[in-house]
TrEMBL record:
Entries under SUPFAM superfamilies matching the protein: S-adenosyl-L-methionine-dependent methyltransferases
Pfam families: MetW
Gene3D superfamilies (alphabetical): Vaccinia Virus protein VP39 (3.40.50.150)
Taxonomy, superkingdom: Bacteria
Matches recorded under NCBIfam families: metW
Source organism of this protein record: Aquabacterium lacunae
Protein name: Methionine biosynthesis protein MetW
């Protein structure tokens, strides 16, 4: 699921994520939303694969775009897929909504040769300022009030680095995104979204 606040920055973000996926890859997109990223990967990078989505409306939108989609709950794991079934497994803006984050990350690494994860970066400087003022942040990347958010947890770049090591994963690349721009310098402070590309260690 990817934020849609500004159409230009949203498309720039999709394009940057798509660049992490080698052409011709077999892709699994966990929490694929309306399937627009899978459609882009199919049309522009000649990829194939499936999306996993629980929302009825999004599943219908995937079907309308000709995207292969399986409706199921990610909390139940990925037992329907064998080891190394995919070249790339995408988990974009879903990690923070899952109860068993570590298990899903291990499953991502099991079924795919490469994993790509993105999530809202809680250490982004406006979020830090909000917390210093005594309030939970509300922003484009974290658009909900604390009492009605679907996010079960929040995380930072350093948090994910630690979890990746704990799961035996090797981080191949990490960077931040903000307003459609890639952030390489001080991403934990300057980026609203964290992006990691990894493989089994």
């Amino acid at each position: 699921m990817i934020e849609h606040s500004n159409p230009f920055t949203h498309q720039a973000r999709l394009a940057r994520i798509a660049e992490l996926v080698p052409e011709g890859s077999r892709v699994l997109d966990l929490g694929c939303g309306n399937g627009e990223l899978l459609a882009l990967l199919r049309d522009q990078r000649h990829c194939s694969g499936y999306g996993i989505e629980i929302n009825d409306t999004h599943v219908r939108e995937c079907v309308q775009q000709g995207v292969n989609v399986i409706q199921c709950n990610l909390e139940e794991g990925l037992g329907l897929f064998e080891d190394n079934s995919f070249d790339v497994v995408l988990q974009l803006d879903t990690l923070q909504n899952l109860r068993n984050t570590e298990a899903m990350l291990r499953e991502t690494a099991r079924v795919g040769r490469i994993g790509v994860v993105s999530f809202p970066n809680f250490a982004h400087w406006p979020h830090r300022v909000s917390v210093l003022k005594g309030r939970m942040p509300v922003s484009k990347s974290l658009p909900y009030q604390w009492y009605d958010t679907p996010n079960i947890r929040v995380a930072t770049f350093r948090d994910f680095d630690q979890l990746a090591r704990q799961c035996g994963l090797k981080v191949l690349e990490s960077f931040g995104l903000h307003e459609g721009q890639e952030i390489r310098r001080w991403p934990n402070l300057r980026a609203s979204t964290a992006v990691f590309k990894f493989e089994r260690g």
